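Hello forum,

I keep getting stuck at the same step: I have a sequence, I want structure tokens, and every attempt I make locally crashes halfway through. Rather than fight my setup again tonight, could one of you with a working pipeline run this one for me? It's a single chain of 233 residues.
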Amino acid sequence: MDARRTRVGVVTVSACLALTACGAEIAVRDAAPGRERTAIDVPAGTVLNPARWPDACSFVTDAEIKAILPQAGKLSRESDWVKLPEDGALGGKAGAGLASDGKCAYSFGLPQNGGYKGHIEGWGAFDVEILAVADPKLLTRYVADSKAAHQRDAVVLETDARRFGADECYSHARSKKEIPTVVCRKGALMFQSNGVGFNYIDFEGAEEDTAAFDKIVKERVTPAVFRAMTANL
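Reply #2:
Ran it on my machine without issues. Output:
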């Protein structure tokens, strides 16, 4: 009996080594956003100059990322500037200028799984870039104009803003095969994001670069990240 138990144990360990790191199944949670808020004060009828924009790295907290992906670790943010010329900014000169923290790249590590060799750590990332901050009445027209401009040279997709916790959204890409950029407005803020991307992981048995994997990212993870972002505005 002891010898039989030993053989079963060897088979189990071998299967774990061949398929994935045992216990490294990556969980996805439909978490509610936190209570943190990013204050944006815009007087009625005005456009906020980029120099006064909020920090894009303040939109999603570490706790909110870990609520969606509990095993996420080594969370980091890298801010970048956004510069708008007068001829491309909402409000012309009033909305033109430099936002020193108008863009942010969020990244985090995840357990290695999926049978990847060499102990390669999994990781995920998403980005957010502010496009304008203004009275919502002004932004509604600006979103419509932006959508119309992209329709001339890109594939524009209707996007359900409710799933992203926003007031209005649309997506655009150069082709149907390209990952779309999502443009949303929530209150006084208009922003865009390329969504959430992952490398070197599987989700719930769905291998990377498969339709099942992409469905989890598109239908569960990405909307949850957007809702965390928009709930803080």
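The radius of gyration is 21 Å. If your local run keeps crashing, start a new thread with the error log.
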